[in-house]
Amino acid sequence: MTFHAFSFSRFWAVVAKEFIQMRRDRMTFGMMIGIPLLQLTLFGFAINSDPKHLPTAIITADHSTFSRTIVSAMRHSQYFEFIGEAASEADADTMLDEGDVQFVVNIPEDFSRKLLRGERPNLLVQADATDPAATGPAVAALKQLVSTSLERDLKGPVAQLRDAAGPVNLILHNRYNEEGITQYNIVPGLMGVVLTMTMVIITALAITRERERGTMENLLATPTRPTEVMIGKIIPYIVVGYLQTLLILVAARLLFHVPMLGSIPLLLLLMLVFIAANLAVGITFSTIARNQLQAMQMSFFFFLPSILLSGFMFPFRGMPVWAQHVGSILPLTHFLRLVRGILLKGNGLHETLPHVWPICIFVLIVMTIGIKRYRQTLD
Amino acid sequence: MKNGELVIDVEGITKRFGTHTVVNNIAMQVRRGEIYGFLGPNGSGKTTFLRMLCGLLRADSGSGRCLGYDIRHESDAIKREVGYMTQKFSYYEDLNLQENLDFIARIYGVPKRKEVVRASLEKLGLYARRKQLAGELSGGWKQRLALAASLIHSPQLLLLDEPTAGVDPKARRDFWDEIHQLAADGLTVLITTHYMDEAERCHRLAYIAYGNLLAKGTVDEVVRSAALSTWAVSGPDLHELAASLRELDGVEQVVPFGNTLHVNGRDAEQLRKAIQPFQREPYRWRQAESGLEDVFISLMDTAEDNFK
Ligand SMILES: Nc1ncnc2c1ncn2[C@@H]1O[C@H](COP(=O)(O)OP(=O)(O)O)[C@@H](O)[C@H]1O
Ligand SMILES: [Mg+2]
Fold first, then answer.
1. How many angstroms separate the alpha carbon of residue B15 from the centre of ligand 1?
2. Which of A57, A286, A366, B63 is most buried when burial is the number of CB atoms within 10 A of its CB?
3. pLDDT on residue B207
4. What confidence tens digit (pLDDT) does each residue in A289-303 have?
5. DSSP states of B177-222 as a string?
6. Ligand minimally distant from the alpha carbon of residue B38
């Protein structure tokens, strides 16, 4: 019964064959090297759960040493980066609404006078708390830093102001997500993630499958135009995408009680641009991939940075500048701002537009590549 | 279009992939109602040529008309009237027969679609199996489905790319009966095949190797124009005899057919001289007719010398 014994040479024949095939499929081989490198870069260098240099605006009518001390201490902490002065509170609100700043520091007019009188003046800090993880560490540092920074200035006769409660009454106002509930941020974001996953992977697979099985040749031999095939294949998945969105919206409402301040129809409308972006990616992948496995791998290659660099899992502003640049290319990054803006901040069309056009540019560029490649594969 | 009119009339058709010329300066004329066989070794450019005819690929040069339409500029019109059965089964394995036919009928905008699909299923004896998934069909049934699908829009021209590869003899015979019936009704058929018996069932044929058209005409014309001289020899130890004959100048092919060897060459006189020393007991020699296969293999060998 030697036939039943484990044969090393037979086993080795399989191993050797497997290696040859692995080497032949250059794309898969590339992905096997590429994906770990990508993960290493993303997790090792890009991701940082201690976001610093958060853009901060200041409103102040008090130009005293004390104000300057506080501002410079905040700057020194590296958590806050002052990008300018807001002319008015309305101006500051717009900046927060549009996501231009994370914090607004408001130093009232009579700040230094009250401080010297020991009246514990208010120092008002408003935070965009849609993503509690983005503001958390900065807020923790702020509490500490306000009292310690003033210690140096409060010397001599005013030294007694350095009492236990601190010389200043720090009022922190968490905007948009007062209780700092993480789900408020994650659940709407999930919509974008699910759409990215479905749209990219499924379109890439659906079209590659048609080619892999040879049915594409048949289709192209009929009077159907490539655009009819493309659009015809895509529409069902757009419907699926909307069903997924509705499912998440209902769950967000009923299970997680996520606030929905803005207009849902507006969200559903602008979502089309985002869906288009993902479909464009899927189609472009399908023109490059030779089989479904490759299509899957490429989708994963796109999916990974989308999740990690978009601000879905980790605060966008916590990443180094290069990673933020990469993140800004990805449609998910802008869609997250858009959907969180509409749901949590009650943004209208005007405030969301800055998040829409980068997705449009992405669609244009990727579509162009996709159409160019599609032409080539016909011949 | 009347009988005898040219359904395919192209010339100078050339296609290159990179630097590799896959179809080289080919002309072809096919009349209405004709079954035209297209033969040639694997990789000789048959599929590529068919793809150019139905507008799937753009020819690098050449011109002509297919069904009266310009092949370079009117491929949409051509596609509407051509049925193309691809070499590889190319319908949806995860759709059932009826769904497949229905889909293709919709794509072509067939009027009275439901009736046409039903009639097509019944005609091909597939009606009872209409709910079966195409992927579960055996080779012969898949081929019938593919034929039914490529006929669903009543095309004027049928392009069949190795339709009978891997199909059993009975199914093959039925298939050819069907093709002859269709041709009798006025359909023009261009069919590629590797089977000699099928080649002989065609009204006319063309032989292509390495992208070059080497012969065309009726079976007789092709055989005659090749002017191949063939002898049949029988006797003992044919294996050794074959080995000795292959060494001779003037002998091109030595092919065993059961208990005889077929020996042929293009130069009749040289061949006669070459085999003279072997025309003795225990061997019995007679002159034989050259078969289509002998002719094709001879053509291919010549082509190999010329174009490789
Ligand atoms: N899309 C393509 N790109 C590059 N080479 C191709 C392509 N299609 C076919 N070929 C090559 O062209 C030659 C002819 O192929 P084909 O027309 O399929 O031959 P046949 O059908 O006669 O077997 C082969 O050498 C094949 O490798
Ligand atoms: Mg072929």
1. 10
2. A286
3. 93
4. 888 999 999 999 999
5. HHHHHHHHTT-EEEEE-S-HHHHTTSSEEEEEETTEEEEEESHHHH
6. 1
Q: Which of residues 325-364 of A touch B (CB under 8 A)?
A: none
Q: How confident is the model at residue B308 (pLDDT cuts 50, 70, 90)?
A: low
CA of B243 to the centre of ligand 1 (A): 35
- Ligand 1 centre from B89 Cα, in Å? 17
Quote the distance between the C-alpha of residue B284 and its chain's center.
Answer: 36
* ipTM of model: 0.81
Kindly report the CATH number that applies to the domain delimited by B6-222.
Answer: 3.40.50.300
Which atom of ligand 1 lies nearest, measured to the CA of B42? Answer: 23
CB distance A265 to A341 below 8 Å? no
Q: To probe the interface with A, which of B15, B22, B49, B56 has the most A CB atoms within 10 Å?
A: B56
Give the pLDDT mean for A109-125.
Answer: 85
Coil, strand or helix at A213: coil
Residues from B in contact with A at Cβ < 8 Å: 54-58, 76, 79-80, 82, 84, 86, 88-93, 104, 107-108
Mean pLDDT of A144-167: 70
Residue identifier of the C-alpha nearest atom 25 of ligand 1: B43
How many residues would you count in chain A? Answer: 379
Q: Which long-range contacts (CB under 8 A, 24 or more apart) does B80-83 make?
A: B80/A223, B80/B108, B80/B153, B81/B155, B81/B156, B81/B157, B82/A221, B82/B53, B82/B54, B82/B155, B82/B156, B82/B157, B82/B158, B82/B159, B83/B150, B83/B151, B83/B152, B83/B153, B83/B155, B83/B157, B83/B158, B83/B159
CB contact under 8 A, A218 and B57: no
Show residues of chain A in contact with B79, CB under 8 Å.
Answer: 221-223
Percent of chain A with pLDDT over 70: 95
Q: Count of alpha carbons within 13 Å of A200, Cβ hemisphere only?
A: 28
Domain range annotation of chain B: 6-222, 229-289
Could you give the CA distance from residue B103 to residue A218 in angstroms, rounded to a whole number?
A: 12
pLDDT, one tens digit per residue, over B51-86 is: 999 888 889 999 999 999 999 889 889 999 999 999
Contact flag A221-B54 (C-beta cutoff 8 Å): yes
Task: Give the CATH H-level superfamily of domain A54-175.
Answer: abc type-2 transporter like domain (3.40.1710.10)
- Summarised one tens digit per residue, pLDDT across range A21-69 is 888 888 888 888 888 888 888 888 888 778 888 999 999 888 888 888 8
Q: Which of A14-18, A222-226, A277-281, B5-9 has the lowest mean pLDDT?
A: A222-226
Distance, in Å, from the CA atom of A208 to the CA atom of A289, rounded to the nearest integer, reads: 7
Specify the CATH architecture of the domain B229-289.
Answer: 2-Layer Sandwich (3.30)
Q: What is the mean pLDDT of residues B244-257?
A: 87
Measured between alpha carbons, how far is residue A218 from residues A175, A229, B51 in Å? 57, 12, 11
Residue B308 contacts residue B296 (beta carbons within 8 Å): no
Which residues from B are below 8 Å from A217, CB to CB? 56, 86, 88, 90
Q: In this predicted structure, what is the pLDDT of residue A117? A: 83
Residue type, A124: L
What pLDDT was estimated at residue B133? Answer: 93
Domain(s) of CATH 3.40.1710.10: residues in chain A: 54-175
Instruction: Taking residues B88-117, report their average pLDDT.
Output: 93
Index of the ligand 1 atom closest to the CA of residue B211: 14
In single-letter form, the type of residue at position A339 comes to V
